[in-house]
């Protein structure tokens, strides 16, 4: 959307929030995210920010690892550029998250479904890793002349973020610097354990093909002249009451046995040619 020229100020342009009155945040994670804003923000600016967000004046909201950016249509024709930055997890914090999920596999199903289960948040809090940021971990930057943090435009972006958190809880992970697909890949790799390097695998395959020596004796007995498969049949194979069946089958096996005279192979008894 082009913002460079307006005949007059437009009241919106973005998607209005679903919440038309009362609290914007509906779920516990988005409520905690908004609480961080409302503890430090000016009441008047927060009220104006909610009005902007509900009117659809937050345009092009985009979340990326560690931050969210948007354009907010204010009182001037040109929208203001806003960026809300959240402290990203350190490498050790991400490793702690991966280890926590590996040790608690029941958390995997919700994560693969794009949800962030409350149990994960509680477990992480227990080891000193917070999913939802505290006030000192959030910074606001806006191109408007108001030096307050947050200004009404930044507040509008936070309220829009809160509604996105309701719809997509994994947004909280992205704000912490970890995209959900990447986190799931790391969890899967950690759960499956270390794999042998490709070089080692190639060496093992080469060693296998260099094995020398005769094949082991498989215990297959030599064929006994005059003996057929029927001679190996007994009551254990044929079942109770099968006495005499092996004798009846023997002539048929003799008839199809390789090595018989030409012209008789494959012919059942009684149909062999006579000289």
TrEMBL record:
<feature type="domain" description="SWIM-type">
    <location>
        <begin position="127"/>
        <end position="162"/>
    </location>
</feature>
<keyword id="KW-0479">Metal-binding</keyword>
<keyword id="KW-0862">Zinc</keyword>
<protein>
    <submittedName>
        <fullName>Putative Zn finger protein</fullName>
    </submittedName>
</protein>
<dbReference type="GO" id="GO:0008270">
    <property type="term" value="F:zinc ion binding"/>
</dbReference>
<dbReference type="InterPro" id="IPR007527">
    <property type="entry name" value="Znf_SWIM"/>
</dbReference>
<keyword id="KW-0863">Zinc-finger</keyword>
<dbReference type="Pfam" id="PF04434">
    <property type="entry name" value="SWIM"/>
</dbReference>
């Amino acid at each position: 959307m082009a913002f460079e020229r307006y005949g007059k100020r437009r009241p919106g342009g973005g998607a209005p929030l679903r919440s038309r009155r009362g609290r914007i945040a509906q779920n516990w994670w988005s409520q905690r995210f908004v609480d961080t804003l409302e503890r430090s923000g000016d009441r008047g600016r927060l009220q104006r920010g909610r009005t902007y967000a509900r009117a659809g004046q937050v345009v092009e909201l985009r979340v990326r690892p560690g931050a969210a950016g948007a354009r907010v249509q204010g009182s001037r024709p040109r929208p203001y550029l806003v960026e809300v930055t959240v402290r990203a997890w350190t490498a050790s914090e991400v490793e702690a998250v991966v280890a926590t999920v590996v040790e608690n596999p029941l958390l995997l199903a919700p994560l693969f479904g794009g949800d962030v289960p409350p149990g994960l948040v509680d477990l992480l809090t227990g080891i000193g890793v917070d999913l939802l940021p505290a006030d000192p971990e959030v910074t606001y930057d806006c191109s408007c002349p108001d030096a307050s943090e947050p200004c009404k435009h930044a507040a509008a972006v936070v309220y829009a973020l809160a509604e996105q958190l309701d719809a997509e809880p994994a947004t909280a992970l992205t704000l912490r610097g970890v995209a959900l697909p990447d986190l799931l890949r790391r969890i899967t790799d950690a759960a499956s354990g270390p794999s042998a390097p490709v070089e080692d695998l190639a060496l093992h395959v080469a060693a296998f093909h260099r094995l020398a020596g005769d094949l082991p004796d498989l215990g297959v007995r030599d064929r006994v002249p005059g003996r057929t498969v029927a001679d190996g049949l007994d009551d254990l194979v044929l079942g109770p009451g099968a006495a005499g069946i092996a004798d009846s089958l023997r002539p048929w096996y003799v008839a199809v046995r390789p090595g018989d005279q030409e012209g008789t192979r494959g012919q059942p008894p009684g149909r062999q040619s006579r000289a």
